[in-house]
From TrEMBL:
<keyword id="KW-0067">ATP-binding</keyword>
<dbReference type="InterPro" id="IPR027417">
    <property type="entry name" value="P-loop_NTPase"/>
</dbReference>
<keyword id="KW-1003">Cell membrane</keyword>
<feature type="domain" description="ABC transporter">
    <location>
        <begin position="3"/>
        <end position="239"/>
    </location>
</feature>
<dbReference type="InterPro" id="IPR003439">
    <property type="entry name" value="ABC_transporter-like_ATP-bd"/>
</dbReference>
<keyword id="KW-0547">Nucleotide-binding</keyword>
<dbReference type="GO" id="GO:0005524">
    <property type="term" value="F:ATP binding"/>
</dbReference>
<keyword id="KW-0677">Repeat</keyword>
<keyword id="KW-1278">Translocase</keyword>
<dbReference type="GO" id="GO:0016887">
    <property type="term" value="F:ATP hydrolysis activity"/>
</dbReference>
<dbReference type="InterPro" id="IPR050107">
    <property type="entry name" value="ABC_carbohydrate_import_ATPase"/>
</dbReference>
<dbReference type="GO" id="GO:0005886">
    <property type="term" value="C:plasma membrane"/>
</dbReference>
<keyword id="KW-0813">Transport</keyword>
<protein>
    <submittedName>
        <fullName>ABC transporter ATP-binding protein</fullName>
    </submittedName>
</protein>
<dbReference type="InterPro" id="IPR003593">
    <property type="entry name" value="AAA+_ATPase"/>
</dbReference>
<dbReference type="Pfam" id="PF00005">
    <property type="entry name" value="ABC_tran"/>
</dbReference>
<feature type="domain" description="ABC transporter">
    <location>
        <begin position="255"/>
        <end position="499"/>
    </location>
</feature>
């Protein structure tokens, strides 16, 4: 089925998220939609899927105009969406999830789950998925859960498939399997829209590439285009994609973690006996699929977890048992993985956000009152140094793009004397131009002799920044390996395989 978008325009008040976008996807083609976060890719696909109504333009399938009032209309027309965050019921079986929403019934209105099982087996056999229709979804690996999402779409006879950032929660091996699946779907005649910001994946699987910037199509490219060319189209300028850093000048261990355990409310160990150290002037990158204890580990170091056992000493001083305020005042900088929830107050100005974790005393507060002139001077210096793109320091931080919000967080956390920097997902939702800037600042902090922990699900980022790599799986440290460890080895470790020779086993 041929998909065509003609002049799609979608406005939200004064913001034009999609500005007269044209897109054609042919049957048997993987068409990549590439752009920065906030460029308008997801808005465009939500229009296609019936979640939004376009203000202008038309959607055509095999040259026939469509008028979708909701996702149900889009699905009935042959459009399937594979979401970044799976739309599955964890306690249901595969067959139950696949049948959900378009259940077939036997006489008397009894659910015909056998029909759903047969459909799952049929699609699995056709595409080599090897999915058990009676398996409980929450017991399946993430990569298999994604196959269930694809089976759901195919069970509804989707001829156009939209993959929205599909590799965000996958290991490298699972990503390779997904790419193979997409190729098989293409060979079966499906028209595929692949939304991503990962340049390596684009060049690996796309037949054609359309680049969107600020809501407009700025050009098309072939998969033979270089990463530098694609990045320049996305951002509108040349971008340095390689992190430039010298060999580390290592000092003594400054952070020493010994048998650190974090227990959740249900009594399960979400961090299980973690032991490691970070030296002065070193970046230790923590790799792993999201949800394997990385978040809880970093929060334990910041005093944000309540049920913590074991030890974590920074320059000989115990962190476990101290308050968040005490830990921050000891010189720990923290870039949280969710900046909007944990890093910023959207209604506050840029200036006010820059003093958030130091609003209890000097130099920003004197005798209970904010020193406005000092804050303005400090904020203006950070605003310029970190190249924050905004009307000024009084702009509400919630009005900024994701990349500029992240710069505000970094400016606050790195503008004081640090004894440790913990940066969780430092470039999540950030465009390639801002990534370049953020990486330079992290490396500069390391070069100043500060121990740095970077947590990232992006293996390219891990490899670019790390002096050593620590891999976590189900709350345990699988191993600590050199920065040059191959991606496929890291991928196996992320799936629970032990560290290879040359690495340190947990």
């Amino acid at each position: 089925m041929k998909l065509e978008l003609r002049g799609i325009t979608k406005r939200f008040g004064a913001l034009t998220a999609n500005d007269h976008i044209d897109l054609v996807v042919q049957p048997g083609e993987i068409h990549c939609l590439l752009g920065e976060n906030g460029a308008g890719k997801s808005t465009l696909m939500n229009v296609l899927y019936g979640l939004y109504q376009a203000d202008e333009g038309a959607i055509l399938l095999d040259d026939e105009p469509q008028a979708f009032q909701g996702p149900g209309d889009a699905m009935r027309a042959g459009i399937g969406m594979v979401h970044q965050h799976f739309m599955l019921i964890p306690v249901f079986t595969v067959a139950e999830n696949v049948s959900l929403g378009h259940e077939s019934t036997k006489a008397g209105g009894v659910l015909d789950i056998d029909a759903a099982r047969r459909r799952v087996r049929e699609i699995s056999a056709r595409f080599g998925f090897d999915v058990d229709p009676d398996a409980i979804v929450e017991d399946l690996p993430v990569g298999v859960q994604q196959r269930v999402e694809i089976i759901k779409a195919l069970s509804r006879d989707a001829k156009v498939l939209v993959f929205d950032e599909p590799t965000a929660v996958l290991t490298p091996q699972e990503t390779d399997e997904l790419m193979a699946t997409m190729r098989r779907l293409r060979e079966g005649g499906a028209a595929i829209v692949f939304i991503t910001h990962k340049l390596r994946e684009v060049r690996e699987v796309a037949d054609r590439i359309t680049v969107i910037r600020l809501g407009k199509v700025v050009g098309e490219a072939q998969p033979t285009a270089s990463n530098q060319e694609l990045a320049a189209m996305m951002v509108g300028r040349a971008v340095e994609l390689t992190v430039q850093k010298d060999e580390p000048s290592l000092g003594e261990p400054r952070l020493v973690v010994d048998d650190l355990t974090v227990v959740d409310e249900a009594g399960s160990k979400v961090v299980d006996g973690a032991s490691f150290e970070v030296r002065a002037g070193e970046i230790l990158a923590i790799a792993g699929v999201q949800g394997n204890g990385q978040t809880e580990l970093t929060e334990a170091l910041l005093g944000l977890q309540e049920r913590v056992r074991g030890s974590a000493t920074l320059d000989g001083r115990e962190l476990v048992g101290r308050s968040v305020r005490q830990i921050l005042d000891s010189g720990v900088g923290f870039v949280p993985e969710d900046r909007t929830e944990d890093g910023l107050v959207g209604a506050f100005s840029i200036a006010e956000n820059l003093m958030l974790d130091r609003a209890h005393g000097e130099p920003f507060v004197r005798r209970g009152s904010i020193r406005r002139s000092y804050l303005a001077e400090f904020a203006k210096e950070r605003f310029d140094e970190y190249d924050v793109r905004a009307p000024g320091i009084e702009a509400p931080v919630g009005s900024l793009s994701g990349g500029n919000q992240q710069k505000v967080v970094l400016a606050r956390e790195m503008s004081r004397e640090l004894s440790l920097l913990v940066a969780a997902q430092p470039t999540r939702g950030v465009d390639v131009g801002s990534i370049e800037f953020i990486h330079k600042r992290i490396v500069a902090t390391r070069d100043a002799g500060v121990p740095v922990i970077v947590v990232s699900t992006e293996l390219d980022e891990v490899a670019a920044l790390a002096d050593r790599i620590m891999v976590m799986y189900r709350g345990r440290i699988v191993g600590i390996v050199p920065a040059e460890t191959p991606r496929d080895v890291l991928g196996l470790m992320m799936a629970g395989e032990p560290a290879p020779l040359g690495g340190t086993a947990a």
